[in-house]
Amino acid sequence: MNETIARQGIGMTSLRTRRRLIDRLRSHGAASERVLSVMEKTPRHLFVDQALAHKAYEDTALPIGQNQTISQPFVVALMTELLIGADIPMRKVLEVGTGCGYQTAVLSQLVNWVFTIERIGSLQQQAKERLPALGYRNVSYLNADGFEGWASNQPFDGILVAAAPALVPPKLLDQLAEGGRLVIPVGAESDQCLRIITRGATDFHEDQRTAVKFVPMLKGHQE
After folding, report:
1. What are the structural domains of the chain?
2. Active site annotation includes 190
3. Which residue in 32, 71, 122, 152 is the catalytic one?
């Protein structure tokens, strides 16, 4: 996808339609105007199959192939808001679960650099082609097991996980910087809760938020 096509694509859906979604997210409790502003200008319809583009600005998750989904916009807004609300600047953020690259695009406009891991190589390759074409270039990619994190680039000021493990992966905690924050859905498919874990000088502080529904986080990776 070249930049000319990208610009044409951005015009497919009206600003009025996007603003209706943002108003809906705001009414549901999304509070960060900084995050909402970024989401308003991020062309979600270019991150889904063309047949689903007419649903791109509905507040719902959509399939992206490989039994994966693009997250519900409200969940993207909430998780991003929780992540960037940490007490330290978000210079380096690790994203576990690149998927189609939509959450990556949102993060890349709010932090200095995004390091994104995806276990399904074909999905990440699509995102790796799509994101630079749309102008999101402050991103590094790794096709790997998300449970392992990205040790060579630690510590991370923030880690956002877009799939749900049964338990918080210890290696992700290890790779948090002091003051850094991990935002992660945890639990079985029918009983998941969003957790926010902050690393202190000697321990971790955990807070639980709303119930969520994500695809399970799986070990291993495929090229």
Report:
1. 60-212 (3.40.50.150)
2. no
3. 71
What is the rounded CA–CA span in Å between residue 143 and residue 130?
16
pLDDT band at 15 (very low <50, low <70, confident <90, very high): confident
Mean pLDDT of the chain: 91
- 68 vs 163: CA distance, rounded Å: 9
What confidence tens digit (pLDDT) does each residue in 31-77 have?
999 999 999 999 999 999 989 988 999 999 999 988 889 999 999 99
